[in-house]
Amino acid sequence: MPSKIIQVKEYTVRAHKREIHTRVFNFVCKQCDEPTKRETFGPRPLYCEKCRPPQAPKKSSVVPLRKRKPRATTYKSDVDLAN
Q1: Dihedral, 23, 26, 27, 28 alpha carbons, nearest 10
Q2: Helix (H, G, I), strand (E, B) or coil at 21
Q3: 3-state SS, residue 14
Q4: Of the chain's two ends, which shows fewer C-beta atoms within 10 Å, N or C?
Q5: How far apart are CA 10 and CA 61, in angstroms?
Q6: Count of CB atoms within 10 A of residue 48's CB?
């Protein structure tokens, strides 16, 4: 089973190196029906690299630290209620 050393950079933990175990799958592409070979660390792929090329990892969304409370607003009126 081939293995790779990859560089992992995260904001919540210190950057470190991690060893992932990859496998080479021989399969028939679901879209183009061509026999192909693809290396992956997840489940068996369905598509070849021409039909579905590898994508960059998704960025995690930024969560605001604190939600601010709404401020009271003062409205100006044309009508004077003091008279």
Answers
A1: 140
A2: strand
A3: coil
A4: C
A5: 13
A6: 20
How far apart CA 44 and CA 25 sit, in angstroms, is 7
Q: Which residues contact 18 (CB under 8 A, 6 or more apart)?
A: 5, 6, 8
62 to 11, 15, 16: CA distances (angstroms): 11, 19, 22
Distance CA 51, CA 47 (A): 6
Give pTM, 2 decimals: 0.47
Whole-number Cα distances in Å, 80 to 33, 76, 77, 83: 79, 10, 7, 7
- 26-74 pLDDT, tens digit per residue, is 999 999 999 999 998 888 999 998 998 888 777 765 556 567 777 888 8
